[in-house]
Design a protein that fits this description.
The chain is of the alpha/beta class. The protein has helices spanning 31-34, 69-90, 110-120, 143-151, 166-170, 178-191, 209-220, 247-264, 318-329, 347-359, 367-374, 378-381, 386-390, 405-409, 411-417, 421-429, and strands at 24-30, 43-49, 51-52, 64-65, 95-102, 132-136, 156-162, 195-202, 226-231, 268-269, 274-276, 294-297, 302-304, 308-311, 338-344, 365-366, 394-397, 400-403. The longest helix has 22 residues, at 69-90.
Length: 433
């Protein structure tokens, strides 16, 4: 399909390629064999904690609400078995970046959070040298938990606020009070963690340009080093306004308003969603997402080598998530020594992933690095990229291809447009539980 045929900039969020809904059952392989050809001296280590205190109406993450204390304990036991087996299977390795996500990692009680870090210690992480990030929520960003994060030299905390208009967050099933949000933001600042990221959403029910601007201005009172502005991808039943414009038009208007406001306030745009104060980011250490491997531990986490992406199975619904979790906590160490669910990337999909991961970032696609990896040229392999130049979506300066401001705004259409046909077919045929 020609890009000009796309009618909306909101196709889907490309945060990974291939998407997890393209994964399928694999012939089981030993974990040690999977990683045999991958450079293991520059790895991203990710831990997934699939627990939350509430389920937001827009959420499609692998998480369970109000899990029992016994399930949390069983989960950490299984996570420890998986971590020990992974370390044994991979052998010599070096972690250069760490993230703990979910769900809500700080849903864990302080003692459980301490135990989580003891599990992370299995990988000999040098916390003072490795950039690390932890996700939290207004209800769980408490001083006792934040002290634990700060003691491990956590460089970045990301908190999902979504909106400072209480009626807007209530419309997606989140009875959130600003008083609690303000306390949690103050607590993060008091903990001395260098980078605060605030997640916000535009396209919420009855949200207006004025209320969106109010949310942005309120967020800036806490001087966050980063903000992520997410478009809502679940249409609220009540709609978001009475202007007569389409929902896509309203979201695009709010995106432009937010982008322009943050740029005026001195932030730089890193991607369609990410805005950052200059010289204030936590950094990626030695990690390069286009080339280096990622070890994902925990139910719902994904792992990447250059040619194989794998994970546990995927679900969003309560019963589906609970079933997968119950299976996970019963797995033995030997079970964790095998990979049986994921997607094997051929050369075409490795190239597409490299392009997508590069192009949707403001730094853009380096033709030199692409040539170094694949011994070819991106515009020769994928001549359809030239259409983006003709539409003023992209530009080329020497050996670097970057999206224009217009192209960044259409990132959620450009990403899916570059998917291989097989990936699109698998995603569409996936039966979500």
């Amino acid at each position: 399909m020609n890009f000009s045929q796309l009618k909306t900039p909101y196709q889907s969020y490309t945060y990974a390629y291939p998407h997890k809904t393209a994964y399928r059952a694999l012939t089981p392989r030993q974990l040690s064999d999977v990683w045999q050809e991958q450079d293991k001296q520059s790895l991203f280590l990710y831990f997934h904690i699939p627990f939350c205190e509430m389920r937001c109406g827009f959420c499609n993450l692998f998480t369970l609400v109000n899990a029992s204390t016994s399930l949390e304990a069983e989960y950490l036991n299984a996570l420890e078995r998986q971590a020990k087996q992974t370390k044994q299977s991979l052998g010599e390795m070096k972690v250069v970046q760490l993230a703990i996500g979910g769900g809500t990692p700080t849903y864990l009680k302080p003692a459980e959070l301490e135990r989580l870090y003891e599990i992370i210690d299995i990988f000999d992480v040098e916390y003072s040298q490795v950039p690390s990030s932890v996700e939290t929520s207004p209800a769980t960003a408490t001083p006792d938990r934040l002290r634990i994060l700060a003691a491990r030299n956590t460089q970045r905390v990301s908190i999902g606020v979504q909106s400072f208009v209480e009626s807007e967050v209530k419309s997606v099933g989140r009875p959130q009070r600003n008083e609690k949000v303000f306390r949690s933001l103050d607590a993060i600042r008091d903990a001395g963690i260098p980078v605060l990221n605030i997640d916000l959403i535009y396209g919420l029910a009855f949200q207006t340009p004025q209320s969106w601007l109010y949310t942005l201005k309120t967020a800036l009172k806490f001087a966050p080093e980063e903000l992520f502005l997410y478009p809502l991808y679940v249409r609220p039943l009540t709609g978001i306004g009475l202007s007569g414009k389409s929902w896509d038009d309203e979201r695009f208007e709010l995106y432009q308003l937010g982008r322009d406001f943050l740029l005026e306030q001195g932030y730089e745009q890193v991607s369609m969603r990410m805005f950052r104060r200059p010289n204030s980011h936590a950094g990626q250490g030695e990690y390069c997402c286009q080339n280096d491997g990622m070890i994902g531990l925990g139910c719902g986490a994904r792992s990447y080598t250059r040619s194989l992406h794998y994970s546990s199975e995927y679900a969003v619904g309560k019963e589906g998530v609970r079933s997968i979790l119950e299976n996970y906590v019963q797995r033995s160490a030997q079970d964790f020594a095998e990979v049986g669910y994921g997607y094997q990337l051929n050369q075409d999909n490795q190239r597409r992933r490299f392009i997508i991961q590069s192009l949707l970032h403001s730094s853009g696609l380096s033709c030199s690095l692409y040539h170094q990896r694949f011994h070819s040229e991106p515009l020769q392999d994928y001549p359809q990229l030239r259409e983006l130049f003709a539409l003023n979506m992209a530009q080329q300066n020497d050996r670097q291809i970057t999206l224009t401001p217009k192209g960044l705004a259409w990132s959620d259409a450009i990403g899916p447009w570059l998917y291989a046909n097989e990936i699109t077919r698998l995603m569409h045929s996936y039966e979500l539980s």
